[in-house]
Specification:
This protein is α+β, with helices and mostly antiparallel strands and 283 residues long. 42% of the residues lie in helices and 16% in strands. The chain is globular, with a radius of gyration of 20 Å.
Length: 283
């Protein structure tokens, strides 16, 4: 897509010197915008409108209320394309301990219920965020079962997985009926590609998929694909210690993320999903 002089006027960011494409994932087109006075990160969602970015904007603003994420500059719709302008982040190196503390501060923001005030239906992994008082209800009915339906449609299911999943649901309900948790602000997609450091070493989180949930779910994601070292978890524990036995519940939440990967990428993730399900029922 051509970013021309008409776009310069629409963005209204001052005297734009250049706009150059950068890597930004496979969902949006991404550009670095350089003006006389500053730099910005521009995301464009073609053939859509600015509402596509509403959830991301909400997430960035919520995280920035207690932690650190790219600052939202503006959003809009131009020539049938939705766009989002963020502050440009120069990345560097930093302390995993500090990053763990940052995540803990994010999780320290609480709500009265689990969920969010809107669903996310324009994603390949849909999310139902209806507010719930009970974490087990939210996790089972609005996360696990939503993706179960999707993978069954695609034929990535069998009786073995069904049996293990039913056992997991029973375990989740039994555990949380006796051990309620507080709803925390969740990043929602906390793999190592969505966390990093600014040039001065300040930790930063980006590309959130927020809701208020059980913080163990975010921690489980950090452990699924690696990239976070022991210092990260020590930093986290220094601010907001996890509940005893959290490490035994990691597999419960990794089941969800692996379901999401099966839905997105196919049966290649099936064995990992089954392994997590087996770990979950051996709680």
């Amino acid at each position: 897509m051509l970013i021309n002089e008409d776009w310069y006027k629409e963005l209204d960011l001052g005297n734009i010197q250049k706009i150059e494409p950068v890597s930004g994932g496979d969902i949006n087109l991404a550009f670095k915008v350089t003006t006389d006075e500053d730099r910005y990160f521009l995301k464009v969602q073609t053939n859509n409108d600015k509402s596509f970015f509403d959830h991301e904007i909400e997430g960035l603003n919520l995280i920035n209320s207690v932690a650190n994420a790219p600052k939202v500059i503006k959003s809009g719709t131009f020539k049938g394309n939705g766009y989002l302008v963020l502050q440009y982040v120069d990345f560097g190196q930093g302390s995993q301990y500090d990053l763990g503390q940052l995540v803990a501060r994010m999780h320290s923001k609480h709500a009265e219920q689990f969920g969010l005030d809107h669903n996310i239906l324009n994603a390949k992994n849909p999310k139902i965020n209806t507010w719930q008082d009970n974490w087990a209800d939210f996790f089972v009915k609005q996360r696990l079962e939503v993706l179960e339906i999707e993978v069954k449609k695609k034929g990535y299911w069998n009786a073995f997985r069904e049996n293990l999943m039913n056992q997991l649901k029973t375990t989740v309900y039994e555990y949380y009926s006796a051990n309620p948790v507080k709803p925390s602000l969740m990043h929602g997609d906390l793999w190592n590609g969505n966390a990093g450091f600014e040039k001065d070493g300040t930790p930063i989180l980006f590309d959130p998929d927020v809701f208020f949930g059980n913080r163990e779910m975010d921690i489980a994601m950090t452990l699924l694909f690696g990239g976070f070292n022991q210092d990260f978890y020590e930093g986290y524990q220094s601010v907001y210690p996890l509940t005893d036995g959290w490490d035994k519940r990691v597999s419960w939440y990794q089941v969800y993320y692996l379901l999401a990967h099966v839905n997105l990428f196919g049966e290649g993730y099936g064995p990992s999903l089954e392994n997590a399900l087996q770990q979950s029922v051996n709680f």
